[in-house]
Specification:
By secondary structure, the protein is an alpha+beta fold. It has a domain of 71 residues. The protein is built from 15 helices and 14 strands. The strands form 5 sheets. A 5-stranded mixed beta sheet has the order 12-9-8-13-14, sandwiched between helices. It has a 3-stranded antiparallel beta sheet with strand order 3-6-7, with no helix packed on it. Helix 4 crosses helix 6 and helix 6 crosses helix 7.
Length: 487
């Protein structure tokens, strides 16, 4: 026992040596800042809320609860119309009543889901012509969106690409469609809008149209006109696959000639300008007009809009603001009382072209020379500017060519450069309104990466964007959309 006790005492005195520490160079050290201090810890990983906000959950439950009921109510209304048609008077064709042919239902996509309409098909006994009057009355295209959904899809396709519009429809409307469905809705609705715009222009362009003179017409209306280019498709017709698995060949490259000009006009009343600050003014409202490449058509639509808005009177002065394009000034004679203004910034752009060649790009001398010229032009001293330009001695052949072009440009448009008088009358001297309209109408939707347009597609989408930007989208409810369209 004494030996066992001694052994325990010896074991208790034994200490286990720790592992040898790694060298200082092998230890991981936190990164240090420039002052030798430790860098702050990395930001924590962000976390999402465990659930949606309570109000959003309530909204979602209410929507899920009543969505089927709304669809059932819509289906009941359509069934009632079908019953009324069945017991009503048969349609007539060739002077005789048509006979009932079949009762196969027609399916249609709505924003509340797919519905089935038991529309009766009628057939003429004499000419064998058949039709579904109820389908035509409801403007239904079997298997495709119609009614409110078609107009909502057209609105989404009007502001975003067709692929993105289909994604937005799934989130906003709870409707799952593909990009081609959105494209078709835009084409149908855009064709209806384009036809209405063209018919309105033809109505007001006819000399037999009665135009009552409005006593309260504005004293002056500003019409800013300009154009921008749009890339067009290489092929004349849209390609189609013959089988679902067919792979279409790559498209040929777009040559420089495959572009067309979109001509745009902006109508505004100078008296409706409001001052946002002592040096900044804006207009209360404006009306946009556009067309694809036809100057005569653009001015016909401008005239139609002026007549429709009743902005043109016996003594109304139509102020046309534009650059030096001859297609603008050649058609100014359409208006009886007209005031032509050369855009001030286009006039300065030509002067800067000479200044850079004469004094050097970015030189202080060019800046001082152009600033003095701008001050004199705004003060109405056009003839003094021309006399001074004729005394200049260009330093190179390029600057000589630019100076001759500048003198000719100012000489041709001297009657349109009385900027002091235009500013006193409140007309304005710049075409910033139409430049902004180009960005809103064309650039924001038509000139995204890789986009090329057919003439029909551009015409239809332009008509829809005009309705949206002019605040007239509600009128699409009164447009009758065609059922069949060319690609």
């Amino acid at each position: 026992m004494r030996g066992l006790s001694t052994l325990r005492q010896v074991v208790a005195q034994i200490r286990v040596a720790p592992d040898p520490a790694p060298p200082a160079s092998a230890r991981p050290r936190p990164p240090a800042t420039a002052g030798g201090r430790r860098a702050p810890a990395p930001p924590p990983r962000p976390s999402l809320a465990p659930a949606a906000p309570p109000l959003m959950q309530i909204e979602q439950r209410i929507l899920d609860r009543f969505w089927p009921q709304m669809r059932d109510a819509l289906q009941a209304e359509l069934d009632a119309l079908a019953v009324a048609e069945r017991h009503g008077t048969p349609p007539r064709c060739c002077g005789t009543p048509m006979a009932a042919h079949d009762h196969r239902p027609v399916t249609c996509e709505t924003w509340m889901g797919t519905i089935r309409i038991p529309a009766r098909r009628w057939r003429c006994r004499i000419c064998n012509r058949d039709g579904r009057p109820l389908v035509d009355q409801l403007e239904i295209e079997p298997g495709h969106p119609s009614g409110l959904l078609a107009r909502w899809l057209g609105l989404l396709g009007c502001v975003a690409s067709y692929t993105l519009a289909a994604e937005l429809a799934a989130h906003l409307l709870r409707v799952h469609v593909n990009a081609m469905t959105v494209w078709r809705a835009v084409q149908r609705l855009g064709e209806a809008a384009a036809r209405h715009t063209e018919a309105m222009s033809a109505h007001h362009a006819d000399p037999r149209t009665d135009r009552p003179v409005r006593a309260g017409a504005p004293a002056a209306v500003v019409v800013a006109v300009d154009g921008c280019v749009l890339g067009m498709q290489v092929r004349a017709t849209r390609r189609r696959r013959t089988t679902p698995d067919e792979v279409l060949p790559a498209l040929p490259p777009v040559d420089d000639g495959h572009f067309r000009e979109v001509k745009t006009g902006v109508l505004l009343v100078p008296a409706e300008r409001v001052a946002l600050s002592p040096t900044r003014h804006t207009v209360v409202r404006r009306v946009l007009v556009t067309c694809l490449g036809n100057a005569d058509l653009l001015f016909a639509r401008l005239w139609a809009q002026l007549a429709e808005l009743q902005w043109i009177g016996a003594h109304t002065v139509v102020v046309i603001v534009g650059d030096g394009a001859e297609w603008i000034w050649h058609r100014a004679a359409l208006f009886a009382n007209v005031c032509e203004i050369l855009d001030f910034w286009h006039a300065l752009e030509h002067a800067w072209t000479y200044a850079r060649l004469q004094f050097g790009e970015g030189s202080c001398q060019a800046d001082r020379w152009a600033s003095r010229l701008a001050h004199d032009l705004k003060a109405g001293r056009v003839q003094e500017v021309l006399a001074r330009l004729k005394t200049l001695r260009p330093r190179s052949d390029e600057s000589r060519t630019a100076l001759d072009a500048l003198i000719k440009y100012y000489t041709d448009h001297a009657s349109r450069m009385r900027y002091d008088e235009y500013l006193r009358l409140g007309y304005g001297i710049g075409s910033g309104a139409v430049e902004s309209a180009h960005k809103q109408i064309v650039h924001a939707r038509f000139r995204q990466a890789g986009m090329r347009w057919s003439a029909l597609g551009a015409r239809r989408l332009l008509a829809l964007r005009l309705l949206l930007l002019n605040g007239q989208w509600a009128t699409t409810a009164q447009l009758r959309m065609p059922r069949s369209l060319a690609a």
